[in-house]
Task: structure prediction
Amino acid sequence: MPSSYFKAAFAQVESVHDVEYVQVEESSFQPATPSELSLKEYEGSPHQIARRMGGIDILVVHGAPVTDTVLDASECLKLVGCARGGPVNVDVPAVTERGLPLVNTPGKNAEAVADQTLAFLVWIARGFPRAQRFLSDGNRLKNNWEGARFIGSDLRRHTLGLVGYGRVGCRVAARAIAFGMAVLVYDPLVTVTDTDVEQVARLEELLARADFVSLHARATLDNANMIDGRALATMKRGAYLVNTARETLVDEDALDSALESGQLAGAALDVVYATEKDGPHRLLRHDNVVVLPHVGGATHETLLQGAEMLAAEIGRFASGDALRHVVNREVIAQ
Result:
């Protein structure tokens, strides 16, 4: 996340406070301490941040690592912000131990991921991957009649099953309804009040009734491989699967088999398990599969919104108003 997004969002903050922007650099840093080893998905080293922390009241990062060393480098630190939904690059226990509130930006990418989900649905419903591969292989159509081999389906008159109805799921539902789809929802943690969608009590019912199944659940230990061989067999033959949530929700071996047998007519995945093998992902051997490298939230608007959400939190903090998105809310309760 280039600092330009923070600069665009922090105009009001700069009118009241002194703001310093630092772009972290790639580093050969090797984590060693317990605090450093607790972090994931970060860029740069804690030392790059710690050197700039003298006199800092508020620290805001996107992917920079925040360890106990960073936190202790300022004697007047009062607030930490992370422009991510999951602050995995921040030592949350260390922040909490020091009595500091940690604010984040949940849902900042919800619009982008919802857009991607609808794009996925259109792409696989129409069989566009087959058509694209036809051209990529050097083939050409002689006339419009030959295009009949690529006839696909509209989304209208079909049923979409949403597994998870949080910030992304509800936005996908609104878009799908605009496309003329019926929407089913399975989410045991939410009571759906939207009259345009139908909530079902069992995942099996959703799988059996939906023409398209789209995953929007948080990854937990309890739902690992929730879409396994049994779940895929429960789906309609010729149905489609979309996953823009987390790779752990899907048993890729079972998905590979379901695509091979024709049980599923296609799949679109923004998240897959990493592999050490070179070459295309194995699921791409199927002619109606889309695999992307986890780019659902990779938009300019998403990054700007994350910075804007943190700028708003800083304004609330400075005014003594209640913070909205606090990761370690027990600190606020003290």
Notes: Strands lie at 58-61, 79-82, 102-103, 159-163, 182-186, 198-199, 212-215, 239-243, 264-269, 289-291. The radius of gyration is 23 Å.
